[in-house]
Amino acid sequence: MEIRMISETEYTVSGVSIKNMTNQRYCIFDFESTGINHETEHITQIGAVIIENGQIREEKIFNSYIKSPKPIPEAVERFTGVYNTYLQDAPKLKDIYDEFLEFTKECVLVTHAGYEFDLPLLRNECQRNNLTMISNPCLDTKALFSYLYPEIKDIIWTDYLIKYYNIYDKDIRRHDALGDSILIGRIFLRILGEFRTRNIKDIEFIDKVLVKRFEIKPMV
């Protein structure tokens, strides 16, 4: 897989290849962090859930706060609902990372905006902590939707997909890593349904898929 940033507002994705997509085991994951700059911020929560046989297995979850080397700013606390007090007794990333890797074993990873945030954030954290970067194939709901609908020029926010697919989210705590993982899972299942409707059995980005980057807005 190749992700190429072509401007401040767009990037392309190519080389994605998932065969027999309906028979795969998926791990939907999400991170919360101290901020939105993946180069300087740190993970504060990891959430993940498994999809097997077309169903979200909510009994198979991974959820942990992560002790950060820097405090969470007040604006980020208010936005995410993750407070510094939650991290006081939390493990450091290096102490729980192997458990997360084990949870994702033999899974295709799925996230939202992961190509532009979650994966670069994790890569930087791995470099800081001398950890091995996760190597599972990874899908991003933004890129998948852009593959299906290249004519849509909007930025594909989570809320955009919730509205587009009429996803129920009233039972989920938003901006919580586990809650957002479950929500991304619901979106992903609807996207898989569209692939099946089009009689597409394999996910393959042979040509570059153009994706709009999210806009970084300061939190105050």
Automatic annotation (TrEMBL):
The keyword Amino-acid biosynthesis does not apply. Keywords: Exonuclease, Hydrolase, Nuclease. CDD domains: DEDDh (cd06127). It holds the Pfam family RNase_T. InterPro entries: DnaQ, Ribonucl_H, RNaseH-like_sf, RNaseH_sf. Residues 25-197 form the Exonuclease domain. Gene3D superfamilies: Ribonuclease H-like superfamily/Ribonuclease H. This is PolC-type DNA polymerase III. It comes from Cohnella soli.
